[in-house]
Write a structure and sequence with these properties.
Elements (H helix, E strand, L loop, with lengths): L1 E2 L4 H4 L10 H4 L19 H8 L1 H7 L4 H15 L6 E3 H27 L7 E2 H13 L9 H18 L6 E2 L1 H8 L8 H12 L7 E2 H6 L12 H14 L6 E2 L1 H8 L6 H13 L6 E4 L4 E5 L1
Parallel strand pairs: 1-7, 2-8
Antiparallel strand pairs: 3-4, 5-6, 7-8
Length: about 300
């Protein structure tokens, strides 16, 4: 058992940010724990956001180390729901899931009043369309340089809105609007997420993704540059794992298996990871706050 003299082991989660490899952005972990790649060798921003929540993490970035320590001590006390002086894996798992749900709720709340113009507690497609594209609709996007892109965005938004609108009345309830903004959270929106992903990557318009398109979505080589090892690894992943039927392409089902790994509980994995990484003696972790001692146990 090791007694920590500060919350430094968790404070490091508030310290470092790093670039995101493109391939990480395609995978829709339900209620993404972080927009950053999970790679402790390069930093702890993923853990930082998973533990605190994305918005709270931004606040921590502005605090001094001492302020962060005090704030983290209060958070640890909230995680310890049974007040036994320990933060268990179960409590940490619940906390991370709570932060996931709260991020989605806050994101929906942030956008709600922007679109619910008549304040009736619902958002009609016309309200969303006019607020987002209204300035350009009368001119059919004629004043925009990339006219085709904006028309495609409108078409995609309308298709996603109609899929989220389960009763097909052209009006989104708060739950339906949540499905519109965060389709990866809803099983009935699965096909939309897959379709949009294929459309983004499928450059030749044949409705499926070949090896070059798959790699091209992640990596654009510069003249004379040697292809990085991670790109070679992704080529192997495409051939050995992604392309399950070995026809040289990713179809809808294969894309779904790639980007929507729903059977994986990433909050559970992150809870185990935080305990494992912070508990250096592999027995338990004692977190010392200004007024109390907390232990995180595996």
């Amino acid at each position: 058992m090791m007694l920590l003299r500060s919350l430094a082991s968790l404070c490091i989660l508030a310290a470092v940010a790093f670039a995101v490899p493109a391939q990480e952005k395609r995978i829709h972990h339900h209620a993404d724990l972080s927009d950053h790649a999970h790679d402790d060798a390069h930093g702890f921003q993923y853990d930082h956001e998973a533990f605190l929540g994305k918005e709270e993490a931004k606040t921590f970035d502005q605090l001094t180390p001492e302020e962060s320590k005090d704030r983290l001590a209060k958070i640890v006390d909230r995680i310890d729901t049974n007040k036994d002086g320990y933060v268990s894996h179960t409590e940490l798992h619940y906390w991370i899931k709570h932060r996931q749900r709260r991020y989605i709720e806050e994101n929906v709340n942030k956008h709600w009043n922007d679109y619910d113009k008549n304040q009736d507690g619902k958002i009609a497609w016309e309200e969303y369309k006019n607020t987002t594209y209204g300035f350009y609709l009368d001119e059919e996007f004629d004043d925009i340089e990339d006219k085709a892109t904006y028309k495609a965005m409108l078409t995609r938004d309308e298709r996603r809105f109609k899929n989220a609108d389960r009763d097909r009345d052209g009006i989104a309830t708060r739950e339906e609007f949540t499905a519109f903004l965060h389709p990866e959270e809803f099983d009935y929106m699965r096909d939309v997420v897959v379709q949009e992903t294929v459309e983004d990557i499928d450059k030749n318009g044949d409705g499926k993704i070949n090896m070059d398109e798959y790699i091209g979505d992640m990596y654009s080589p510069e003249s004379g540059e040697r292809e990085p090892d991670w790109v070679q690894t992704e080529r192997k992943h495409f051939s050995d794992f992604r392309d399950a039927n070995k026809d040289g392409y990713l179809d809808g089902d294969e894309v779904a298996h790639w980007i929507l790994p729903g059977e994986v509980d990433h909050a559970d994995n992150e809870a185990k990871h935080l305990i494992h990484e912070t508990d250096t003696d592999k027995v338990d972790l004692m977190l010392l706050s200004p007024s109390d001692t907390h232990r995180v146990t595996p």
